[in-house]
Design goal:
This protein is mainly alpha-helical. Among the domains are: 98 residues; 159 residues, Reverse transcriptase/Diguanylate cyclase domain (Alpha-Beta Plaits, 2-Layer Sandwich). Helix content is 69%, strand content 6%. The protein is built from 22 helices and five strands. The protein has a five-stranded mixed β-sheet with strand order 1-3-4-2-5. Helix 19 runs antiparallel to helix 20. The relative contact order is 0.06.
Length: 493
């Protein structure tokens, strides 16, 4: 069976029962279709069936072999679909950094293959991870990038982008802007298109906040009528949002409806332990509001049960799996190590911070972050040539390694470096950077190079209790570095 034969056959397969579809793909994957487009297609459709059932871990298990070795496969747009599917599955498993990495990789592959159709799609997906991390400003930045490339995408993609923009603006309490974005999103649909569940959910919460009860009730009823038909991810989002509306308005009927629906879901999917924990937490909130002591105790018992199962699962699988997800191709060293400096790359940085944030022991320790920028590289490249510029970068990298070792050093961009200081305060990280500055000054006095080493830097400290993500702090360190660069420029005048 070749690629085109599969696509033709797929229309027939979709008419079969779910069990028959699963059996077809399972048998197909046992055959010798290694490193072919057919294996990509079969893995995607097989994994999608489990995703629709809410079995995200099974989805990850099916798609992972494609992802780990994707460069060995011939390119097909369905490869991007595989990245998106595992991105969504890890998203549902609350691994937002991991999910974002997959979306960013999909975007990179799309750009390498000039698949402009997917650009807005990936930017939108990246924004969704930031929304989950409650980093709404970063979500809006990614959505702005999505807007810029909308002309190359499916017309209806705009609807999703503007709806997610509306959700982000709602969370920032910018309701007038949120309403405008929502109305623009809805206008992107054809007249005969059924409004999807996430649009309906956005409308319900928006009109509730705008105190427009008639519109709120209309959309709320639409959501409740379709909850049994929703995919697991959409189901959970709907439960969470409507429960908050019901709690705020003291709507016992709505909250009870949500809790009954979640109970039925858990009976159907008892192994979805993270969903179970969220269910138990909603019961607890409801019980506290009612001052029902017995219900409170039952909810606490359920929360402890699911927390224990999550901890057990994490010990057995989490870190091992996480490393497998992020290290998507051990053969492509260029993604992990910069050839000029020997430092880890930007992609390796995202991998490492994802591991730090998800490791219980590591995330409870202070992490110092230094963002450094080499001064005058463009001038050296223009006046002395790029070879001299490369010599300068290699020299600064060598000085950095002598103090910090290469394990925590990353080349983030052309002349930008990041240094992670594990279990180190901002003060101690800044002291170490001052030592580096002194070493560089001595080097300039002793070396006979036609250029001078110079760099600017900024330091911050990661505290998981007050920061949404390690990655978000890079912007702060970058800003401090820029301020230092400006100050140095003024002092040289």
């Amino acid at each position: 069976m070749n690629y085109n034969d599969f696509l033709t056959r797929q229309q027939q397969i979709e008419k079969l029962s779910i069990a028959e579809q699963k059996n077809f793909y399972e048998q197909l994957l046992k055959k010798k279709y290694d490193k072919t487009e057919v294996r990509i297609l079969a893995s995607f459709y097989y994994g999608q069936l489990f995703y629709q059932e809410g079995n995200f871990r099974k989805t990850i298990e099916i798609i992972e072999p494609i992802i780990v070795d994707y460069q060995s496969y011939p390119y097909t747009p369905k490869l991007l679909s595989c990245f998106n599917l595992i991105g969504v599955a890890t998203h549902c498993e609350t691994e937002y950094n991991v999910s974002r990495f997959f979306y960013e990789t999909a975007l990179k592959i799309a750009m390498e293959n000039d698949e402009k159709y997917y650009y807005a799609f990936e930017y939108n997906n990246i924004a969704l991870t930031y929304i989950e991390e409650q980093n709404y400003e970063e979500a809006l930045k990614s959505l702005a990038l999505a807007e810029d490339v909308l002309k190359d995408c499916d017309e209806e993609m705009g609807a999703y982008i503007y709806i997610n923009k509306s959700i982000s603006l709602q969370k920032l309490n910018r309701l007038t802007e949120a309403l405008k974005a929502f109305e623009l999103g809805v206008s992107q649909y054809h007249a005969d298109t059924i409004v999807p569940d996430d649009v309906t959910r956005c409308a319900a919460t928006l009109y509730y906040k705008l105190e427009q009860p008639e519109k709120y009730e209309t959309y709320k009823k639409q959501i409740l009528s379709k909850m049994d038909e929703m995919y697991a991810a959409e189901f959970m989002d709907a439960c969470r949002e409507l429960f908050e509306c019901g709690r705020d308005s003291c709507d016992d009927n709505l909250m009870n409806h949500i809790l009954r629906s979640m109970n039925q879901y858990m009976k159907k999917y008892p192994d979805e332990i993270k969903v179970g924990l969220e269910f138990a937490e909603l019961i607890y909130v409801y019980a506290v509001g009612k001052m029902d002591k017995d219900a409170i105790l039952e909810a606490l018992e359920a929360k402890n049960y699911y927390k224990d199962r999550i901890i057990e699962y994490s010990k057995e699988n989490h870190i091992k799996s996480l490393q497998q997800y992020i290290e998507i191709n051990s053969q492509i060293s260029e993604l992990e190590r910069d050839a000029l400096t020997g430092f880890k790359t930007r992609k390796a940085y995202y991998k490492d911070i994802a591991i730090i944030e998800c490791d219980e022991e590591m995330c409870n320790q202070p992490v110092g972050i230094a963002f450094a920028d080499v001064n005058g590289l463009k001038k050296i490249n223009d006046n002395l040539g790029h070879e001299a510029g490369d010599e300068l970068l290699a020299a600064i990298a060598k000085k950095i390694i002598t103090i910090f070792q290469e394990a925590g050093c990353y080349r983030f961009g052309g002349d930008e470096f990041i240094i992670l200081f594990a279990n180190t305060s901002r003060h101690d990280a800044a002291t170490a950077m001052e030592t580096l500055s002194h070493n560089v000054a001595r080097f300039n006095q002793q070396a006979a190079n036609p250029w001078q080493l110079a760099f600017s830097w900024g330091c911050v400290e990661y505290d998981p209790a007050s920061h949404p993500s390690l990655n978000a702090l890079v912007a702060t360190a970058d800003r401090l570095m820029y301020q230092a660069k400006q100050k140095q420029g003024r002092e040289r005048r």
